[in-house]
Amino acid sequence: MKRIFTLLLSLWLVTNASAAQNGTLSGTVTDAKTNDPIPFATLTTLSGNTIQGIQTDIDGNYILPLPEGTYLLSISSVGYEKQQIAQTIKAGETTIFNIALKSTETILDAVVVTGSKFEQRLGEQTVSLEVIKPSLVENTNSTSADQAIQRVPGVVVIDQQANIRGGSGFSYGAGSRVLLLMDDMPMLTADLGFPRWDFMPIENLEQIEIIKGASSALYGSAAMNGIINMRTAYPKSEPVTKFALFNNIYQNPRDNTVITLNTDGSPRDTLQKSWWGNEQPYERGASFAHRQRYGQFDLVAGAYLYDHKSWRATEFSRRGRANVNMRYRFKKAPGLSAGLNTNYQAIKSGTFLIWNDIGKSTSDVEMYRTWIANDTIVNRTYLLTVDPFVEYFNAASGIKQKLIGRYYKNNNHTTQNRTTLSDLYYGEYQFQKRFETIDLVLTTGVVSNYAKVDAELYTGGHHYLVECRGILAGR
Regarding the domain delimited by 112-232, which CATH topology (the fold level of the hierarchy) does it fall under? Predict the structure, then answer.
């Protein structure tokens, strides 16, 4: 019994002596100019031939246990000057060491997530990927997202259906073949799998990522021809507020008449090209965006108003949109964040399907008027998304977990017995693990989708669709 007690006491003394020889180095890595935290910065320590490394979490914090001694500490991050500092660690003590890195003046490669579901530099992508910055949207006065993406070579939008490099042909009402995403979540309606380009909040845009090629392994069958992913801009250290007004008009051509000939070559009547007379078609609107950080709380808000009167009779569009994104980064749980994104839009529009006449009447302006036997279709559409999310990243283990959800309501009321009411419920859990030694990122997860549709055009009451799939990929 005495020998056992002596052995246990010896083990306890050895364990405590070993623990007493360890210290802790902790702190925060920030931008020297803006004081913003730098996430995923790399810290390595060198003592003799022993090298240890760690990455900062999403808030730039790090905790590194080390044995007692003096170390050469190296801190680096993409776009910042590398620093090397000697640091002494004392046993049983926590050394607080905050680091401010200076940004470099070199041109940096854009960081994207769409190609592999984790952040990578654009130059490291193995797929053909284009990035659109918000300056292109602002400088071209694009009133919806599809107007901006059509400026990318190989991308065409016909009747709101995207086509990349001619890979999918034209498909309407049969589900999209180019997947539209907003912050990594699908933005397709529950009834037709339809992308609503005017619903995308382009006033608060970080960038648009476009994959030119099939990505169905990661994103499902809707991505057979490619992916268009829009990412929301979150606030930095300084608040940002933007307000813009725009107004466009359609003027008559300088020569507003045209001479046509009869079959015998003699001149026919002089015809007017335009039908609108003194009431010119127009396009006008206003946008507002605000991004600000309140401690650990991030707030993004935006609004968009649009009014358009077409050159075609009875065709018009008026819409108003408002969005609020909120994110909270937990200080007592580094790497953990949660938030809620909301977006609402109301639309009233009028259109027609068939022209009244062309080439037979005394005036070709009938091609701009609705067919007398076909009433003008007036639509009133209400769109709403509510997106809760929780994310956790552990820099020490290289593990990232994400739980995201979406409720997407699309109510479309028409005057031609084509009213459609649809609700979409979407949920996704994602798990990622980085293996630094072999340069591998393993991604796995599960996705579920539930759609409910009530359409006047089809009988039989409600229509339902349930989908569930798993994801396993490594890169």
Answer: Ferric Hydroxamate Uptake Protein; Chain A, domain 1 (2.170.130)
